Amino acid sequence: MTLVIVFSSCNRGPLFEEVYNFTDNTWQRIEEDLRFEVEIEDEEQRYDIDIPIRYTGDYPHQYLEVGINIYAPSGQENINVRKIYLVDENLHRRGEQSGEVWDYTFRLFDEYKFNERGTYIVEIQNLTGNNFYLRGISRLGLEVRRSKEGSRD
C-alpha cells in the first residue's frame, strides 16, 4: 500500500486530500485500516467530506461497506457505518470509466461541522462481508473541502 498526500490552501481546491493505493488492487481488511490526520483551523466553517474510490471490474460486490471513525482533538468520537454502492439498481457501475477501472467519489457528509480546532483523526475500515482480502479496490482516500453553502468567504 502506498500513500499520496496533497494539501491545499486554495479555497477552490480541497483543504485536505490523501489517498491510499493498494498493492495488487486488494484492500487487506486487518492490516490496512486507513488513517487520515485532518487539521481544522476554523470550527465555524462547514465542510464537505468525500471518499474517492478507484476500483476495477474485478470488484465482486454491489457495494463497499466501511466504518468511518472521526476523533476530535478532545477525544470526542463520531462513529458511522456506510454502504457505498458501486453498482446502481440497473447493475451499472458508478463513476467515470477508463478501460476496466472506475473512479467514483462518494459524498460522506455535506456541510459537516467540526466542533473544535486542531487535528482530527479519520479512520476508514473495510467492513465488507468476510473478505479479508477485498480484491478490485485500487485506491481509496479522503477529501475535505469548504462547503459552498457554509462558506464564509
Strand content: over 45%
Shape: globular
Structural class: mainly beta
What's the CATH first level?
Mainly Beta
Radius of gyration, taken over Cα atoms and rounded to an integer in Å: 16 Å
Instruction: Kindly state the number of beta strands.
Output: 12
User: Which strand order do you get reading across the main beta sheet?
Assistant: 1-2-12-5-9-8
**What is the CATH topology?**
Jelly Rolls
Count of the separate structural domains: 1
- Tell me the span between the first and last alpha carbons: 37 Å
Which blocks of ≥5 consecutive residues have pLDDT under 50? 6-10
How many helices? The count is 0
Q: Could you state the order of secondary-structure elements as H and E?
A: EEEEEEEEEEEE
The CATH architecture assignment turns out to be: Sandwich
Describe the structure.
Helix content is 0%, strand content 57%. Residues 6-10 have low confidence and may be disordered. The strands form 3 sheets. A 6-stranded antiparallel β-sheet has the order 1-2-12-5-9-8, with no helix packed on it. Strands 4-10-6-7 form a 4-stranded antiparallel β-sheet, with no helix packed on it. It has a two-stranded antiparallel sheet with strand order 3-11. The chain is mainly beta and 153 residues long. The chain has strands spanning 2-7, 16-21, 26-28, 34-40, 47-56, 63-71, 77-85, 96-98, 101-112, 118-126, 133-135, 137-146. The chain has one domain (2-146): Jelly Rolls (Sandwich). The termini are far apart. The protein is globular.
